[in-house]
Structures are given as C-alpha cells and as structure tokens.
Amino acid sequence: MEFDMSLSPRVMCVAPSKTGAIAEQATALVQAGVPVISLSTGEPDFNTPSLIAQAGIRAIEENNTRYTPIAGTVELRKAICHKLKEENGISYNLDEILVSFGAKQSIFQAVFAVCSPGDEVIIPAPYWVSYPEIAKLAGATPLILQTNMVQNFLLDPKQLETMLSEKSRLLILCSPSNPTGSVYPRELLLEIAEIVARHPRLLVLSDEIYEHIIYAPAKHTSFAALPDMKKRTLTVNGFSKAFAMTGWRLGYLAGPKHFVAACGKIQSQSTSSASSISQAAAVAALGMGKAGGKEVANMVSAFKDRRDFLVNKLKDLQGVKTSDPQGAFYLFIDFSSYYGSEGRYGTIDGSESLCRYLLKKAQVALVPGDAFGDDKCIRISYAASLSTLQEAMQRIEKELVQLKPPV
C-alpha cells in the first residue's frame, strides 16, 4: 500500500516566511564568496550591551541554568511590571505577565488562545509577514485592511468600522510598524479605541516590539493605556530589537489574567519556560534606565542618521516614492514605476522580480513588498552600518538606471 504523506490542511494553507527565506539565500551567497549586502532582516548590527551580556555570563557562572516557572522568573516579571507602569502608564500584576521565547511566540499563543475557527482577525496592511499566517494556523480568517503611503500607512477608522462584524475577534496593531516605520499617534488610537468599545467580542493585539526605536517628535502610546482598553488589549513586547538581543530569544505578553493564563497553558504544553540565562540578562536590560538608557539612545540616534541618509538618497531616485518613517529601522519604498521594465533577467513585473534583479545584479538583498501585503513596495532594513548602506545605495542606483523603461 502507498505510504500516506499528506499534511494537515492548516499547514498547507500557510506560506513560509519570505524574510527568513531571503536572509538564508543571502547568507548562502556570502558563504559561497558572493559579496552580497543583506538589508533584508530586522536584526540590529550592534552588540548586546555589555551590562546585559555580563548578566547572562554571571547567570551561567552562578549555575542559574535550571528551569524557571513557565510564566518566567518572579524577578523578571516584577521588572516588566515596573517597566510597564513607569514607561507606559499601565499597572499589571505578576499573573498578568507571560515570558516566552520571543515576541513571535507571544503573538502565536495570543492568537491561538482567543481565536476559534470562523473568527476574523483584522490586519492592517502592510503587515508583518507572520500575522496572517498565524491567524490561518489558528483556524481564523485574516481580513486585510489596506492602507496607503499618502496616509503614512495608518489605518482609516471609518474603513475599520465597515469591516467589523460579530465574527471580528482580534485587531492587530503594530506601532512603530514593521515594515513601514509608521507610528500611530495617540489621537488616532483614541478613535480606534472608541470603535473597539462598541464591539464586545473585539480584542486588540498591540505589537510594541519597536517601542524604544522611535524618532522625535513621534511618541509611543500603548493601546492598553487608553481609557478602558486594558481589559481589551494583549500587549506584546520583547528584548530583541531595542536591546540588540535577537539571539537571546525573549519576549513577553501582558494582558488580562484570564487570557494570559490561557496563553500560559499553551506554553506549558509546548516550549515550557524560556531560557533562565536570557531571563537573567533581561532583568539587567530593564535596569538600564527608562527606554534602555543611554546605550539604547545611542543606537536609536545611529538608526535615525541611517534613516535620514536613505530617505534623502531615495528621494533623488526618479520614480521612487517614500514615506518618512518615525520609528523602527525600515523603509517601505514604492518602486512600482519600474514595473514593466526590461532587465537582463526578463521583465520586472512586481516587487519579487525587482528584488531578484537587485540581488543578482546589485548583490543587495531586499524583501519584496508582496510579503507584507503591498506589491508596489520593497522593504529596506537599515539595521546595518552607514558605510554598508552607502555601498548598497551605490549598487542599487547603478542597476536601476540600467533598466529599460516600460513602453
């Protein structure tokens, strides 16, 4: 009899992460000796601050290498509660905090804990690549709410209102945004909160992983800090971006005890507790001062310089449109005027083919916008040194002018 190699329908409906695939392709080319510049991943090029690294080393030397409580050490959860109260104006108890292996696991568990088959998850586009796929895995239906560059990729509350129904279970917000760098102002969040309040089943998942990477005059507002929204909000944050701790794999969820306990139940049957060493390091990170103190402020200043350089260079490119990101370390650039052009490898018919062209010709790895729900654009990560960005832009400019304009 023929061996059954079928897979779960839920797995079959999920697309692999395009950002991960491109990063792996770029790494393979570099290992093969091709001088590829990768601007595809959201990974700061800075080292983990020494204070944090030393705390991790100390945890190993003191044999702090055992399982911790599934929800995280008491010390870390206390530090997270203190951070959320002092920086975000939200008071939480220890049983309203769950520490996980990164913000992605926190998001995954939150969606699985609150969504059932038939529920709808509202996701503004452009979106982080994993949001729709996680919703599909949970058996929910992702509904994409399109935004545009003219509105700085911020959702229109009136459009949101038209999409909501009794099936609406979760609205996902990401501010500062991956991939656009947009920051939701408090006034707009208040409008959204008024709409949420009118829909009893609707919860908000607020992804705030880029909270500290923000450029004045923009200010971060936590959705749970808005009037009556704490009980409706699942806040996700972590340590990977602001503290340059991507490999430490640590994030957390804050929310009503009922929902956090459900997420903890999922975690108890999957990964159990996060790394004890990473948790000790995270306590040190939260002890560096408000918003990470001087070391994080220096990183953010460098990110701002890089953003300013890229924005100015891209504005000089014919037919390219860009917004002015207020946070994170990404640019989401409209290159659609080049679609229809003829290159050495055929016609440029969308963001993916343009990225393939630039990878082969310019040897620069970027992420096509179709992965984020907007095929007109391409995402550039400026989590790389200024000299690297300068070299990358020279290569990109050189190859773009080689494209024959569409007829």
TrEMBL record:
Keywords: Aminotransferase, Pyridoxal phosphate, Transferase. Pfam families: Aminotran_1_2 (PF00155). SUPFAM superfamilies: PLP-dependent transferases. The keyword Lipid metabolism does not apply. GO terms for molecular function: aspartate-prephenate aminotransferase activity; glutamate-prephenate aminotransferase activity; L-aspartate:2-oxoglutarate aminotransferase activity; pyridoxal phosphate binding. Pathway: Amino-acid biosynthesis; L-phenylalanine biosynthesis; L-arogenate from prephenate (L-Asp route): step 1/1; Amino-acid biosynthesis; L-phenylalanine biosynthesis; L-arogenate from prephenate (L-Glu route): step 1/1. Residues 35-396 form the Aminotransferase class I/classII large domain. The keyword DNA-binding does not apply. GO terms for biological process: aromatic amino acid family biosynthetic process, prephenate pathway. PROSITE patterns: AA_TRANSFER_CLASS_1. Its cofactor is pyridoxal 5'-phosphate. Belongs to the class-I pyridoxal-phosphate-dependent aminotransferase family. This is Bifunctional aspartate aminotransferase and glutamate/aspartate-prephenate aminotransferase. It comes from Chenopodium quinoa.
